[in-house]
Amino acid sequence: MGLYHNGNYHNHASAEIDCAGKPFLGITTLNYSDELEKELQYGTGSIALGVSQGQYKPNADMEMLKSEWERMKAVLPQNGFGEFPFNIGATFKEASGTIVDELRTVFITKVENASQQGPAANKVKLSLCVVEPIRHNGSTLVKVKERPRLALRT
């Protein structure tokens, strides 16, 4: 449940989304999640002795108006835009406060175009590979260790 203040929850209408440091208003959907695998470990008996930790797996995709995709491509390298990392920031502002989620070192892995009959605008869906732990308003699911970072496109 989001923060609540005077009847307002944080929602997509209060979102400001930036990619590679540039704001994009035509992003209609931004989905992101992360998972830290855990496995129960057993010895003799039926009760677990403990747990082992597996891999951390962030996941993300976004959908935007086709015209906004054309704007985003202008920020990315024309030749090989899927080979260059960038950051995504999602800022949700309401009277109750601001929430900032960050996806760092993101690569585009798939581009899907859609067109349909009717008044709906054409959209593009991007599948994303997120390298660093997702920052949920400053918190991460997995402990972040300092390590060399990839050079990002700014």
TrEMBL record:
<protein>
    <submittedName>
        <fullName>Uncharacterized protein</fullName>
    </submittedName>
</protein>
